[in-house]
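Marked as duplicate of an earlier ticket. Keeping the data here for the record.
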Amino acid sequence: MGNIVDYVRTDFRTFAEHPFSAVDSLLLSELSYIRLPLVVPVFGAARSIDTIALTGLLRAEDFPMMFAADSQQVNSARLDLLVAVAESPRFRGLRVGEYIQRDDVDREQQFAAMTFDLGELRG
């Protein structure tokens, strides 16, 4: 049985051919654990939803900050997923933005949210 990276690397159907699914939702949820770099528009900075192409996240100089989990295995898996999504005809046109991240050590809270825009990918 494959994983979500295998799904992204083998299922090239468009969203018109195969509508948005629970697996698509799962992979976007996993991507939301990546700490996004400053090139991603932050929540509330624009009067409308402001995004960049997901492929714009493939900047090696940002990887140490983006993939900062305590587990190298987790970091590697998330990088593999990001690269697979950026290469995939199903997802490469995806846009991301409206990013917000809050960490509060005293309250033991961690929160992050982002908007994914399928735009023309929806079919």
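See parent ticket for discussion. The mean pLDDT is 88.
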